[in-house]
Amino acid sequence: MSPLEPFGARLRRAMDERGPLCVGIDPHASLLAEWGLNDDVAGLERFSRTVVEAVAGRVAVLKPQSAFYERFGSRGLAVLEKSVQEARAAGALVVMDAKRGDIGSTMAAYAESFLRKDAPLFSDALTVSPYLGYGSLRPAVDLARESGAGLFVLALTSNPEGGEVQHAVRADGRDVGATMLAHLAEENAGARPLGSFGAVVGATLGDLSSYDLAVNGPLLAPGIGAQGATAADLPRVFGAAVRNVVPNVSRGVLRHGPDPVALRDAAERFAEEIRAAVDSA
Ligand SMILES: O=c1ccn([C@@H]2O[C@H](COP(=O)(O)O)[C@@H](O)[C@H]2O)c(=O)[nH]1
Fold first, then answer.
1. Is 99 a catalytic residue?
2. ipTM value for the complex
3. Which residues form the Orotidine 5'-phosphate decarboxylase domain (predicted)?
């Protein structure tokens, strides 16, 4: 099966054409209830289909949160599979937020599940956890390269607890988050127009000027909306790297459902705010 064009190139083009917003598909039980849906597979399917139909033709990236589908076992995964395929068919890139991470031999199987082009859950990119050591991700990096897919490595996460691990200082004086960024810069060396190996860096984190965010890859930035960050924070948090930022908004958009027009309008408002913030940088 022929590889896709590298994820970084496809993402850069999508960001240029559609703007950088990533809408998260997070079917929380509380949102299903707010939408008047049952907390069951039918509710999950209706929720996902509504989001995909409302925004997949407009935004650059959709990010389904796998946890909310896994909750329903194999039938939930079937809904996830369909949502990924429909979102991609509508022109959005799909970042599967499954945060996989394990020893290399098991990591290879996770990679097969999400990054092998003919896998049922193939996604344009996958979130991965490097906290079994960056080197444990090698099978995922290799398969992503082979398929034209990408990875987003948890470097500096949006949650307040993340610092306990990510700000831990190594023997060489560099902290763990900075080390992950340095690995990604190596991975993306020479890639044009953008590397395929991105970092997750929370939009909630305030001033990150002590970190080298110039990894020549995308920075997936969750935290806008429900976690308190705003689009206006982006230039301050990301500095010169702001043009490589893919800001994620999940609940901030989803709370406007189930009306597809209201969902689309909410996504458009966030997209406008993000555009204005990036242009002001
Ligand atoms: O550091 C991280 C990494 C991932 N996430 C995920 O992003 C969305 C955020 O949802 P909101 O509703 O916009 O808060 C969710 O799927 C998280 O698991 C993150 O928040 N922070």
1. yes
2. 0.99
3. 20-266
